[in-house]
Amino acid sequence: MNLKLTLLTVSVASAFSLMTQAQAATDPETLAKAIAKQEAEIALLKQQLATLATEQKQQQQNNTDVAKQVEQVSHHVAKADDRFSRFSFTSYGTANYTSDEYFDNVQDTTGERRHRTDLERIVTEFGYQFTDHWSMEVEIEYEHGGTGSALEYDGFDEFGEFESEVEAGGEVLVEKAEIRYRPSQAFGVKFGNIHLPMGLTSILHKPNQYLTVQRHKSEAAMMPAVWNENGIGIYGEIADFHYQAQVVSGLNSEYFRTYDWVASGHQKRFEHVNTDDLAFAGRLDYGNFKTGSAVGVAYYFGNTSGNRHKSNKLDVDGALRIVSVAGAFVEGPWILRGQYLYGTLDNADAITQANKTTPGLRPGNFAQLGSESQSFFVEAGVKLDEWFDLPMTVFANIDYSNPLMDVETGTATKRYENTWSSVGINYFPIPEIVIKAEGGLHQVAVASIPDTEFFALGVGYQFSL
Questions:
Q1: Which in 95, 192, 196, 383 has the greatest CB count within 10 A?
Q2: What whole-number distance in Å separates Cα of residue 162 and Cα of residue 273?
Q3: In the predicted model, what is the mean pLDDT of residues 321-337?
């Protein structure tokens, strides 16, 4: 614009000068020179105007290109933001100190106090929402600060052999790897490696979701804790009811043990999971255990003989049934939760005898399996921040387990019937971190084994992005 004004001014000035010169000069030759000079200046002016028009057009094009580039960058940024918003990351972990009385074996009646520390677990969860209906989640757990024990079955050995390789004290496990399709709140499908809805630990497994330092011993003494299997399931929410129904890989009875019943039959120790026998698991809850008050029931059924590696050792079914009943009252400062588990195992004596003669399973360490098992826990807590400026919860807890509740023949020993009673505190310096202390009494239902005291300290964290 400034250039246009300058050129216009020059033109007017030149025209005015030409008129002045024309008036002053009457000589035709002088007048002709003046006209020629002005024509040259006008030609130059036209050239400058043409150049200016070209530059303006180029500038407009550049502005258009820049606008397109800005729009493309904004689109890419918005797309990246959308992708990032579909990604989720959650992590939690615990580290503990324990002081307990340990017994060398089941015949030992004089315990030895041991003090131990344990980086119990670090868990990372990755999730991605592909579309409004499709999503996935992967959960990886690092246990006891290491990686490394592996168990393989060599079927080409002379009699078939279990071979163990130990590289470190802990494990790295895929706790969950599932793809979900959920077109509505009332119905969804998930498949892959999924959590079974058995036991409250499968629902409340983060350190701020249970009051004790360690997860409840009663549940771990009867079945796999935070139980995961390969399979497919449906789930949904209708009003305040939550349901789940799953078909999954079953357990392997070769590793059932007296002290934890069927828990060791979880096939996570093997590179490949035998699925000759499938299992069904279902759950129905009213309310939500994760957010407040609820009641619920769960049921598991599956045969366990077909998944044995040495299938010729057992020619009868090892049908397993587990029933769970749980409840929670979480209102204001009050916390009350409880669970009862009851299970039956068909042909428990036949499984015991088959395991005693399976190569590689150290038959000398074997004891009788229970045909019935039961356990329960009750925990009660009060949040003190309701009355004081103190982010602390005090609690009392009782855990009971009897994996050898009954046997098919003979009399069940009481050596494996345990009760843990304790009191403790949870302190939250910030909402994402909890520091726990717990002390209590461990009782074995055998008169010759004295009651022993235990103490535990723990710290846990949890956060989500």
A1: 196
A2: 15
A3: 96
pLDDT at 73 over 60: yes
Q: Name residue, tokens 């590696």.
A: 309
Instruction: List the end-to-end C-alpha distance of the chain, in Å, as a whole number.
Output: 54
Positive or negative, the Cα torsion across 104, 106, 111, 117?
Answer: positive
- Using CA atoms, how far apart are residues 454 and 440, in angstroms rounded to an integer? 5
The candidate with the shortest Cα–Cα distance to 159, out of 358, 340, 367, is 358
Burial of 342 (0-12, 13-18, 19+ CB in 10 A): middle
Instruction: Dig out the tokens for 269 from the structure.
Output: 């120790």
Q: Would you state the pLDDT for residue 158?
A: 41
The DSSP output letter for 264 is G
- What residues contact residue 98 under an 8 Å CB cut-off, 6+ apart? 115, 116, 117, 118, 213, 214, 454, 455, 456
Q: What is the mean pLDDT of residues 393-408?
A: 96
Model confidence pLDDT, tens digit, residues 87-140? 999 999 999 999 998 777 777 777 788 899 999 999 999 999 999 999 999 999
How far is Cα 151 from Cα 171, in angstroms, rounded to an integer? 12
| DSSP states along 155-166 | TTSSS-EEEEEE
Token pair 């615990």 is found at: 94
> Which amino acid would we find at residue 244?
Q
**Using CA atoms, how far apart are residues 95 and 175, in angstroms rounded to an integer?**
19
Q: Is the model's pTM score more than 0.85?
A: no
| Rg of the chain (C-alpha set) | 38
Least confident of 237-246, 278-287, 310-319, 426-435: 310-319
Q: How many residues does the chain have?
A: 465
Cα–Cα distance for residue pair 238/236, rounded to 1 Å: 7
Contacts of 215 (CB under 8 A, 6+ apart): 201, 205, 225
